Amino acid sequence: MSVRVSASTSNLGAGFDCLGLALDLWLETRLESGRGEAVYGGTLESLDPDDDLIAAILLERDLLRGKRLIVTSNIPVGRGLGSSAAATVAALLLAGLEGDDLYREAVQREGHPDNVGPAIYGGLVLAAHKPTRLPLHRSIGIALAVPELIISTKTARERLPIEVPRSVVVQQAQRAAALVHGLVHGDADLVDYGMDDRLAVPVRKNLIPGYDDAVEAGLVAGAWGVTISGAGSTLVAVTDVSIADSVAEAMAEALTGAGTVAMPMAPGVVTRPEGHGAS
After folding, report:
1. In this structure, which of 21, 88, 174, 272 has its CB flanked by the most CB atoms within 10 Å?
2. Domains defined along the chain, listed by start
3. What does the pLDDT look like over 2-15, one tens digit per residue?
């Protein structure tokens, strides 16, 4: 039995905790008949089985009896690209959950609907009162600069203010609405406005040395907007698909020059529901 689940970029601009996008980076998990220790590969090669979310869920449901777990991934871990959401979704898929039942259980366990939604449904997902899949404009590409630096979600969450001025709330609502419209219609100006988060980024960006330089480099290279992916440390740019590679390289070069060694990535966007999940 085998499943395949994608990475995701979340906290997308002003769409904090409610807007995410599935990326063409994958976690693959399978259960084989027979006994033996779990095997991990790719970005999970050094994972301690005691820290494995997949194994924990399968053990809880007594699904590892007489089975061997094989997991491999090319999703960077601890970089704000939905690795824990992908693992949670993969385990629950192996446990037989599907569709909205899978979504509800995964959100309850993992806590990030803006990662869980894209991991299950693909494409651009708005985590509103229910997960809503939006049509991402075909011109849009994604560029990433992925640092070696790891930032824990807990550390990033602790930076968030307890109270926010009304003016910030209004601006955030304006920008979130603009971002959704811009992503659906391919409007670069609205994406630029909507990617400028006023809630989390101002208090988190100093966790990533060189952040401002990398944002500027991405914009100069042609990005429509740049922000922190999830809790970080990855920077994500929305741009025209034709220049995603060069935008990623510009951001990674700027981060590395500031002492935050980073690699460029320009993964495609997983937009077809049949392109991920159980396979």
Report:
1. 21
2. 2-134+270-278 (3.30.230.10), 140-265 (3.30.70.890)
3. 999 999 999 999 99
